[in-house]
Amino acid sequence: MAAPATSHTIPICSVPLAAAALTEVRSAAGEDPAKRRQILEGARRVFVTLGFDRASMNDVVRESGVSKSTLYVYFRSKEDLFRALIEEERARYFSEVEALLGEADQPARTLALFGRRLATLVLSPEGMHAKRTVIAVAARMPHLGREFYRHGPARGLAMVSDFLARACAAGTLRIDDLELAAAQFVELTTAGLLRRRFFDDEAPPATPAEIEATVDAAVRLFMAGYGVPGAAGQPSRAKSAITA
């Protein structure tokens, strides 16, 4: 397919129907997964180097080593490319953390395991870059910000809220406002680690030891407020929340 003379932006608010139609057409045409991966990796490097606003489809063509016509077979715009990259990160994130929210009868251990993985992913270079990019373009493309939040952070909070509800039913937690408690815990997992690194790209990466200490403190504080005295799974101050 020949590239259009000017880039056409597909409104992200229409993505569910548009994406489904494009997927059917491309599948029928025999889309090559390896070629798609080649394009996405090139686009990732371009966005990291130039930023979303300065990047162009021509930059992606050069970096990925494909022809312009091939690029437009797979992606119609740089917004399309960015959405695909975000969806990859989102899928990887949820596949890793959803399975961790299991044992409602051991909330301290479960929250510690979940919190460490959550903080590690949030503080990763890929996670930080995605958030910076969305915030940078959200004023001009508010639909992108809404989509990012609804299918990312909001979905994550719903997962935590569901776990907390199960823990309350098991008698290991006592919480009146599940959504508030979920948001509190998620914020605590990166307290003191996220903000500096979000604004200062020269700040050193958070170490595993820093993440572990921050999350363990978050679990203890959370359980002090919402734990049921005497119930199973209460953390000890002398131990990691995972080994408590």
Summarize the model shown:
It contains 12 helices and no strands. It has 244 residues and is an all-alpha fold. The N terminus is likely disordered.
Low confidence ranges:
1-29
Give me the CATH superfamily of the largest domain. Answer: Tetracycline Repressor, domain 2
For the sheet with most strands, the description reads: none
Just name the CATH architecture of the largest domain: Orthogonal Bundle
> What do we call the CATH topology of the largest domain?
Tetracycline Repressor, domain 2
Which radius of gyration do the C-alpha atoms yield?
A: 21 Å
Secondary-structure element pattern, one letter each: HHHHHHHHHHHH
Number of strands: 0
Keywords: DNA-binding, Transcription, Transcription regulation
Organism: Aureimonas pseudogalii
InterPro entries: Homeodomain-like_sf, HTH-type_TetR-like_transc_reg, HTH_TetR, Tet_transcr_reg_TetR-rel_C_sf, TetR_C_Proteobacteria
GO molecular function, one term: transcription cis-regulatory region binding
Q: Care to describe what's here?
A:
With 244 residues, the chain is an all-alpha fold. It has two domains: 12-76, Homeodomain-like (Arc Repressor Mutant, subunit A); 90-226, Tetracycline Repressor, domain 2. It is built from twelve helices and no strands. Helix 7 packs antiparallel against helix 8 (142-151), helix 8 (142-151) runs parallel beside helix 9 and helix 9 (153-169) packs across helix 10. Residues 1-29 have low confidence and may be disordered. One of its GO terms (molecular function) is transcription cis-regulatory region binding.
